[in-house]
Structures are given as structure tokens and as C-alpha cells.
Amino acid sequence: MAQGRGSAVVLAVVLLCVLLHSELAESAVYTVGDRGGWGFNTAAWTRGKRFRAGDVLVFKYSPSAHNVVPVTAAGYRSCVAPRGARALRSGNDRVTLRRGTNYFICTFPGHCQSGMKIAVNAA
């Protein structure tokens, strides 16, 4: 009997690993703004796309001209990053989406107000 239980546990672990792997394999990678990259008026870029939690957004831009800051809904509306918000500055940033709406802005002066922000809803 103990050996039968051990086999069942091993089978369960293997099935769990397969399920977790298949979930990761289904994640999509999107370059924000497509060929144009992260820039002004990218809000419309999300139209027609279906995002899922675990998908990856790649923000490509010139780090001397822009950044990417994940913010809350309030930060998105006001174009103000909350104190302690982590700015991404590599010019080739990868962000994994969490379930719900994910908000991003550029905090260079005037950029967010000029349309350099996106809201991405991940199912």
C-alpha cells in the first residue's frame, strides 16, 4: 500500500510540472508600440490584442529620452508616479503582466501628459 501511495504522489508531481510548464509555454511576448517602440500615443497600441496574466511586454526606447514606470490607476490618470515607484531605464525592459489592469507611464517631464502611457488589461 505504501508503494502505491508513493507512485500516486510521483504521478501528481509530474502532472503538476506538466501543467505549470504548459502555462508558461502559452505566454506571449509583445513589443509595446510594435516596430515604433515605446513612444508617444501608444495607448491605441493595445486595441485588438488579448493579453493574459503571464504575458510579457517589451518596452524598447532610447534610455536618454524615456523611461517606463509601472503605476497605479491613480498614477496613470494623474501622470504622477507614487513615491518609491521603480523606474525602468534600460531601453529594453521586459515586464510580466499580472492579472487585471497594468498601468505604465513615462515620467520624463511632459511625456505622460503628451500620451506616453498605456493601460493593459490581462485576463
Structural summary, described in words:
The protein is of the alpha+beta class and 123 residues long. It has a single domain, classed as Cupredoxins -  blue copper proteins (Immunoglobulin-like, Sandwich). The protein is 24% helix and 23% strand. It has 2 helices and 6 strands; from the N terminus they run H-E-E-E-H-E-E-E. A 3-stranded mixed β-sheet has the order 1-2-4, with no helix packed on it. Strands 3-5-6 form a 3-stranded antiparallel β-sheet. The radius of gyration is 19 Å and the shape is elongated. The N and C termini lie far apart (43 Å). The model has no long low-confidence stretch (mean pLDDT 89).
- State mean pLDDT (0 to 100 scale): 89
Strand portion: 15-25%
The main β sheet shows up as: 3 strands, mixed
Tell me the name of the CATH class.
Mainly Beta
- How would you classify the helix and strand content by structural class? alpha+beta
Proper CATH architecture: Sandwich
Q: How many structural domains in the coordinates?
A: 1
Compact summary:
By secondary structure, this protein is α+β, with helices and mostly antiparallel strands. The chain is 24% helix and 23% strand.
Considering the chains and any ligands shown, give keywords for the structure.
elongated, three-stranded antiparallel β-sheet, single chain, 6 strands, alpha+beta, Immunoglobulin-like, three-stranded mixed β-sheet, copper, disulfide bond, Phytocyanin_dom, Cupredoxin, 123 residues, 24% helix, 2 helices, 23% strand, metal ion binding
Which helices and strands occur, and which strands form pairs?
Layout: H1 2-25, E1 29-31, E2 56-60, E3 69-71, H2 73-78, E4 92-96, E5 100-105, E6 117-122
Parallel strand pairs: 1-2
Antiparallel strand pairs: 2-4, 3-5, 5-6
